Automatic annotation (TrEMBL):
GO terms for biological process: SRP-dependent cotranslational protein targeting to membrane. The gene is ftsY. Pfam families: SRP54. It comes from Sulfuricurvum kujiense (strain ATCC BAA-921 / DSM 16994 / JCM 11577 / YK-1). It comes from the Bacteria. Involved in targeting and insertion of nascent membrane proteins into the cytoplasmic membrane. Acts as a receptor for the complex formed by the signal recognition particle (SRP) and the ribosome-nascent chain (RNC). This is Signal recognition particle receptor FtsY. It is found in: Cell membrane; Cytoplasm.
Amino acid sequence: MFSFIKKGLQKTIEAIAAIAPEKKAKISKDELENILLEADVEYDLVEIILRELYQNDITRDQLRSKLLATLAYAQNSLPDNPNKPTVTLIIGVNGAGKTTTIAKLAQHHLNKGERVILGAGDTFRAAAIEQLTRWADKLDVPIVSSRQGHDPSAVAYDTIESAKARGFEQVIIDTAGRLHTQTNLGNELKKIVRICDKAHTGAPHRKILILDGTQGSSAIAQAKAFNEMIGVDGIIITKLDGTAKGGSVFSIAYALSLPILYIGVGEQPEHLIPFDKYEFVDGILDAIFGEETAK
Ligand SMILES: Nc1nc2c(ncn2[C@@H]2O[C@H](COP(=O)(O)OP(=O)(O)OP(=O)(O)O)[C@@H](O)[C@H]2O)c(=O)[nH]1
């Protein structure tokens, strides 16, 4: 698992290594500032971290405790849902990686022996329905879909009904990332939430926001908007493998105070790993201080 995190952080680790090629037991505040900015930690958070480090030469342990503190809320799991099926609503802007992440989550449940059904709730775009259907075929899981332009809450309702009738444990419902206006999107998502609860009291049990880890402050703005619309229970940050901006995880976690459930580190169904703040921070620290100084 640890090496999986490191593989996902490879580009970030390389970028850090390029500006801090020499591994030392202590680094100066100036060096640290450059490293954090290079890794795409937002400027405000870099300032906060530096302000709270009193010495000019910073050790691994000192930095470790500061970085972990920024992830204080990040490591929280969601409560178990005893009332099966568990309904997960996937939200986020187009291109964030929603469809791929749904496939990854489905694979994750299948690995645990749970039965999964997908709902193609992004009825705004025909391509979204087709793409999710391809994943369903590949993973050999059922999918409920309708034609483009149909009411997505009807898709959500039918998916949940089908899961209940077949005794499935997991329902994962896709949603649109964009409509003609933001207000339309908010209203549509609210309606889907209402209808899920009608189909199965308490559903959706998880409203999970997919954020593209390469998007920095725009990901934070998106999260705030979706949180205001329908409330977000947890986040999955995608595409960390494809970016040198892995430090954005700190800014996202710090700005939102929401659990980071998983991170996406590739395009295949198995490329989803549970977020572990200790592994994540140690991966970054190893890049700065070198592994030999670990612990
Ligand atoms: N490298 C990498 N690529 C990813 C990851 N997650 C998603 N992608 C890629 O990002 C692109 C967009 O992902 P989708 O799953 O299509 O995203 P979406 O939010 O459904 O976007 P649309 O289909 O455009 O609405 C695809 O090319 C995915 O393969 C990840 O963790 N790592």
